[in-house]
């Protein structure tokens, strides 16, 4: 294919994906979604609800359908602007699946075998894992590279997948002699500072799959539920430390102060300057007030949006069309690069 040239990749395009599963928690909000919002000021952003990824493990269709709308409503309520940026569910743009096939032929079995998320999710009985779960990272690479996006905000746990995406991009560019065709992805690792832990056990991540609803704050919780969960959150008998070093062996204290700092837009040190030395009784009231003040408008807006599902769907459809308009020329170029007889 030497001699042919293709348009340069966009220089500042953001892509990220979020799973359409269950109820979103304060952890999803502080650790991920909230960090997506300010990127909209600087970059062209695509935010994708990854239903194709979700079905690598069985999903009950009605639950998947409801979760997709709920995540869309949450993202919009949190400040993602679907008119100036692009918000859609993955299956609306079949270009992801097509490019993922090409990447199935680029990625090596060895690379995929080393993915820790596959090992964790497949568990002991790998023979019974879906083939989709194994090639999940190829689809993730395709999500990003179908738009030749180069900035990807993710949590620490997705870093290995982005390294694999870069290996795929490199091998593709190298094998088909199209240097720089797929851009190098720059992972924007966010959310580490605000890893939100369970309210019942400060050593476990806050998770929508924890059997105890008291362990998490859901974005759909009412003000009363939020206040009650914080009141009952696990603590220890000591007053709050005045410096972060005092969090040693006090995971619950660390977690609650970290949440407070994130909700009030302060560093942990500044939050401690304010609340250090307080007993948990007083501090919890303050934390509950901050959580309610921050989350109530989001919950209200989410519920307002969810009352009109047709409107949410229309927003996603529009997003899907805008997304496809961006990926279509990329896929045409890729077919050309691969040597397929194609019509553009
Ligand atoms: N795998 C990601 C997660 O589980 C979600 C995801 C899918 C994603 N495709 C992506 C994230 C592309 C960033 C870019 O959180």
From TrEMBL:
What Pfam families has UniProt attached to this entry?
A: tRNA-synt_1b
Write down the EC number.
6.1.1.2
Q: Does the keyword Iron apply?
A: no
Sorted alphabetically, the Gene Ontology cellular component annotations on this record are: cytosol
Which molecular function terms from Gene Ontology are attached? ATP binding; tryptophan-tRNA ligase activity
Q: Where is this motif: 'KMSKS' region?
A: 205-209
- Motif 'HIGH' region — list its residue ranges: 20-28
Please provide the Gene Ontology terms (biological process) for this protein.
tryptophanyl-tRNA aminoacylation
Recorded catalytic activity of this chain's protein: tRNA(Trp) + L-tryptophan + ATP = L-tryptophyl-tRNA(Trp) + AMP + diphosphate + H(+)
Its main localization is cytoplasm
SUPFAM superfamilies reported in the protein's UniProt record: Nucleotidylyl transferase (SSF52374)
> Where L-tryptophan is bound, by residue?
143
Residues engaged in binding ATP: 19-21, 27-28, 155-157, 196, 205-209
Keywords, A to Z?
Aminoacyl-tRNA synthetase, ATP-binding, Cytoplasm, Ligase, Nucleotide-binding, Protein biosynthesis
InterPro entries hit by this protein: aa-tRNA-synth_I_CS (IPR001412), aa-tRNA-synth_Ic (IPR002305), Rossmann-like_a/b/a_fold (IPR014729), Trp-tRNA-ligase (IPR002306), Trp-tRNA-ligase_bac-type (IPR024109), Trp-tRNA_synthetase (IPR050203)
Question: Where in the cell does this protein reside?
Answer: Cytoplasm
Q: Which domain of life is it from?
A: Bacteria
Which HAMAP family did the record assign?
Answer: Trp_tRNA_synth_B
Family per record: Belongs to the class-I aminoacyl-tRNA synthetase family.
Q: What does this protein do?
A: Catalyzes the attachment of tryptophan to tRNA(Trp).
Subunit text: Homodimer.
Task: Specify the protein name.
Answer: Tryptophan--tRNA ligase
């Amino acid at each position: 294919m030497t001699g042919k040239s293709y348009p340069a990749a966009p220089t500042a395009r953001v892509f990220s994906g979020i799973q359409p599963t269950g109820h979103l928690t304060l952890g999803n909000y502080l650790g991920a979604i909230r960090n997506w919002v300010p990127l909209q000021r600087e970059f062209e952003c695509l935010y994708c609800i990854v239903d194709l990824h979700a079905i690598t493990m069985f999903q009950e269709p009605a639950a998947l359908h409801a979760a997709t709308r709920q995540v869309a409503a949450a993202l919009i309520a949190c400040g993602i602007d679907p008119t100036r940026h692009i918000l859609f569910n993955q299956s609306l743009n079949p270009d992801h699946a097509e490019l993922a096939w090409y990447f199935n032929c680029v990625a090596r079995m060895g690379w995929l075998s080393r993915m820790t998320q596959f090992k964790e999710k497949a568990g002991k009985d790998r023979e019974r894992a879906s083939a989709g779960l194994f090639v999940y990272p190829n689809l993730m690479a395709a999500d990003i590279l179908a738009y030749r996006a180069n900035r990807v905000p993710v949590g620490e746990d997705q870093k290995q997948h982005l390294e694999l995406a870069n290996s795929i991009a490199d091998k593709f560019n190298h094998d088909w002699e199209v240097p720089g065709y797929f851009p190098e992805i720059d992972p924007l690792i966010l959310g580490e500072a605000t890893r939100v832990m369970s309210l019942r056990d400060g050593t476990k991540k806050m998770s929508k799959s924890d059997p105890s609803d008291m362990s998490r704050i859901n974005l759909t919780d009412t003000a009363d539920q939020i206040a009650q969960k914080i009141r009952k959150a696990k603590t220890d008998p000591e007053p709050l430390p005045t410096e972060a070093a005092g969090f040693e062996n006090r995971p619950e204290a660390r977690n609650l102060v970290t949440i407070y700092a994130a909700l009030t837009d302060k560093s942990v040190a500044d939050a401690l300057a304010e609340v250090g030395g307080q007993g948990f009784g007083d501090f919890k009231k303050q934390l509950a007030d901050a959580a309610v003040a921050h989350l109530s408008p989001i919950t209200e807006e989410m519920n307002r949006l969810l009352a009109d599902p047709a409107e949410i769907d229309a927003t996603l459809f529009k997003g899907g069309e805008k997304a496809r308009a961006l990926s279509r020329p990329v896929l045409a170029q890729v077919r050309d690069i691969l040597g397929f007889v194609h019509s553009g």
